[in-house]
């Protein structure tokens, strides 16, 4: 939507200075300042299940939707590769809410005698949920710290990154030199019994608010490399256990990462079976470059021949299945070998005769917290030349 939409079932408290929203577990999920120091009346804060605060800014609307595909720009508290946005967390009004929201809630006067007793119970319940409780809950999202989600697929933007994370594997196939977000562990599948335990644990954690979720992320960094039966088992078990069929949010989405080799080595029947599930499935593949010198420079142990074959496979799958979209990532940086961008345009422009509606390409800046006008200009130029929907990949975690 091109305007702010409040979605799901939630409760709201409004004072003269701030608006708070709470989920069905009485946990704070959104906040917005109302005083004159608040940056913009249509911008707000969101707290994620990973217990991060995100400030959503409009960014003037026009450039934002063209650049990231959404109308609101997420400003994150942690280092990321975003080329857009300001520093909202350094403003007094935003910092006050992020650092003191619980104290603000405690200071709200209690209800008078004329108000319904349910309101008093509600106020008591939300005041019990302290920052410490929310921090502990975020840590319990994963069975071990090594399984935490350090990055979500960029396609999760379609559901505002509101996904339930279920790891069916850990680690990744490659140990790319450029990568800052993966664990560095070897790829390893999880057992079905452990996955079922994780599903039960997550169902308890999301509790009453699970009705506000309709999307699943199969992690960790290369779930597509898992055995086909394990992927399908996890997707079906989670859909049933989490009650996605009864979600308050229409439709269901499935997100996972893949690699060049996991895509090319996948069982040829996997995609037909994924297409039959009750999900719209998004698989994000890290191609990074179609230039061998660039692949060597970034320490990605694959060949350009495999990258080109993977891109051709992506085109084929996207044309065959209505309920699957495979997207890809390419790097963007000033110091990449000169063959990188010409090789990119051979795929993004010359491989197809007309503009495509599927198969988003995400350009991922290598720089962290160092935006520049040159990089934005470069992105805009590549977007214009690309025949695929092309957006910036903002590294965002759960």
Any idea what the radius of gyration is? Answer: 22 Å
Distance between the termini: 22 Å
- Total helical segments: 12
How much is the average pLDDT? 91
Shape: globular
Lateral arrangement of strands in the main beta sheet: 7-10-11-12-13-14-15
Brief characterization of the structure:
The chain has 398 residues and is an alpha/beta fold.
Characterise this structure:
The structure is a single chain. The strands form three sheets. Strands 7-10-11-12-13-14-15 form a seven-stranded parallel β-sheet. Strands 1-2-3-4-5-6 form a six-stranded antiparallel β-sheet. It is globular, with a radius of gyration of 22 Å. The protein is α/β, with parallel strands linked by helices. The model has no long low-confidence stretch (mean pLDDT 91). The protein has helices spanning 62-68, 92-107, 117-128, 131-139, 192-206, 228-241, 260-264, 270-275, 292-298, 304-320, 340-348, 373-385; strands spanning 11-14, 18-22, 28-33, 44-47, 53-57, 73-76, 164-167, 169-170, 188-189, 215-219, 253-258, 280-288, 324-332, 361-365, 390-392.
Q: What descriptive keywords fit this protein?
A:
398 residues; alpha/beta; six-stranded antiparallel β-sheet
């Amino acid at each position: 939507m091109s305007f702010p939409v409040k979605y799901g079932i939630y409760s709201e408290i409004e004072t003269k200075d701030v608006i708070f929203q709470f989920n069905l577990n009485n946990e704070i999920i959104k906040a917005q300042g109302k005083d004159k120091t608040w940056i913009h009346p249509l911008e707000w804060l969101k707290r994620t299940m990973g217990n991060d605060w995100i400030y959503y800014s409009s960014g003037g609307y026009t450039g934002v939707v063209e650049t990231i595909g959404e109308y609101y720009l997420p400003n994150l508290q942690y280092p990321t590769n975003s080329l857009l946005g300001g520093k909202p967390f350094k403003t007094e009004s935003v910092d006050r809410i992020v650092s003191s929201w619980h104290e603000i809630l405690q200071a709200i006067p209690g209800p008078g005698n004329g108000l319904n007793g349910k309101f008093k119970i509600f106020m008591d319940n939300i005041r019990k949920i302290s920052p410490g409780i929310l921090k502990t809950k975020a840590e319990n999202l994963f069975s071990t710290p090594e399984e935490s989600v350090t990055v979500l697929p960029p396609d999760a933007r379609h559901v505002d990154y509101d996904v339930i994370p279920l790891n069916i594997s850990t680690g990744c196939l490659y140990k790319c030199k450029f990568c800052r977000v993966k664990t560095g562990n070897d790829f390893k599948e999880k057992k079905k019994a452990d996955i079922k335990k994780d599903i039960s644990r997550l169902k308890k954690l999301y509790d009453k608010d699970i009705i506000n979720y309709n999307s699943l992320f199969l992690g960790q960094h290369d779930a597509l490399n898992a055995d086909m039966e394990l992927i399908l088992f996890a997707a079906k078990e989670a859909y049933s256990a989490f009650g996605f069929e009864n979600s308050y949010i229409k439709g269901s989405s499935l997100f996972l990462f893949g690699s060049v080799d996991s895509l090319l080595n996948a069982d040829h029947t996997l995609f037909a079976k994924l297409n039959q599930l009750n999900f719209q499935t998004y698989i994000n593949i890290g191609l990074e470059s179609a230039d061998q010198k660039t692949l060597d420079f970034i320490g990605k142990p694959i060949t350009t021949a495999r990258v080109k074959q993977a891109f051709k496979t992506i085109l084929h799958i996207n044309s065959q299945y209505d309920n699957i979209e495979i997207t890809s990532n390419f790097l963007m940086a000033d110091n990449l070998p000169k063959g990188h961008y010409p090789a990119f345009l051979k795929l993004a422009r010359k491989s197809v005769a007309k503009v495509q509606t599927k198969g988003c390409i995400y350009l991922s800046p290598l720089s962290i917290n160092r935006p520049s006008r040159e990089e934005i200009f470069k992105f805009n130029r590549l977007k214009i030349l690309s025949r695929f929907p092309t957006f910036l990949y903002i590294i965002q975690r759960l």
